[in-house]
Amino acid sequence: MSKTEVGFNEQHRLQYHFSPKEMWMNDPNGMVYYDGEYHLFFQHTPHTSTPDFPNMHWGHAISTDMVHWKELPPAIAPDEHGAIFSGSAVVDYNNTAGLQSGKDKTLISIFTYSPANGVQNQGMAYSNDRGRTWVKYENNPVLQNQGIADFRDPKVFWYERDQKWFMTLAVKDHVELYSSPDLKFWTKESEFGQSIGAHGGIWECPDLFSLSDGNGAEKWVMLVSINPGGPNGGSATQYFIGDFDGHKFTAEHSDIRWLDNGPDNYAGVTWSNVKRRKLLLGWMSNWEYSQIVPTNKWRGAMTVPRELELVKIDGQTYVASMPVSELNTLHESKGLKAGLALNSSVDLAETYDIQPSKFDLSFTIENKPFELKLSNDDGEYLLVGYDLGNREFYIDRRRAGKTSFSDAFGRRNTAKRISNDGNIEIRLLVDVSSIELFTDDGEVVMTSLFFPNSDFTHLELSTESKTTLKGFEINEMKSIW
Question: Is 92 assigned a catalytic role?
């Protein structure tokens, strides 16, 4: 099927990020790796391009590299218990649920049922054919609501030390942890978050996992999305670093930390069953305007997949994220240099014959202000740069095209640099209507949408004084469609 036939040539359609063929998409769900395939399930209403919450399904796509995706029919549909809201999936290697019926291991999804009366419960479905078809568990729900509003988004993991499953669940303004020997019967273990973190809105989509700190020591990370209350307005994802003792999670810091400081990365969670890597994907939008962005046939896309790691800065541990290396297979090299001497400004698009509507740019610059300006001949432009005086990275989309659909959209968004001094490392991914900025090996990340009326054709990089960019590399990106 050609790109034209499926509609992936539409205005603003991303060319190397996953978006559904048509209709509405939000949170990534059920992300699990099994038998050489990455499964991406997602919140999906198959018949409308705005969220029809009573008709919410799990959409489904598969990939062998997290880059090239094949969209499959919706996997899990609403039933008498309610719509299918966010959740997770695991591989039941030990057949703890007793549902395996063939040579393939059973994939089990745990998700939120959201009925018309608003009393949310947790349900289960299983697949014995590598995720192609799903059967609802006959005794659903497996975890019933005790009368609490906003009781949702289960993320399940296997805890090897105690040989049992754990679930993190978002409960209004905090996270609750449950354990189970078989994914069917759950016991509450503990709570986290009532008096720590950002509380400007409802907590959603928690995720708890371990990471090595680079010296062989293990730390635990809790992700929690919040809406509203993000650092640049609307929805965003915060994180906590600490310890999990098999009963409760305890954070080691009290300051608020954001996984992504831009306005358009929400509900990100990690893939289960991936060895030696912790891989994350987020929904690239914001609830302040997601339902009215100027795309018609479809609404919603995912960020590029990102690999998480822990980094140490001035004695403090932080979570960093960078694009997965698999994205480099999309590079079409146009301009590669070990160093680029810059007197004041240069149009990289013209110099290296790059189409700046989709590219991957990397460089290291001295600790000084710089600015990238993406523009078209209609007078529209997007600004990305670093303000040395305020020690802030910024993305300014106020004049980058369509903004009138929402008062919350046309803003200049900022993020403080964490590192105190030294060179600044930049990785920038642009794809038609999205920009993802990774600084200092992923210590600070910003993701933002924008909607120019025509593609950007110029990419001007400027500094206040003469400098040399080290490790300069720019690549046009192939389309995955």
Answer: no
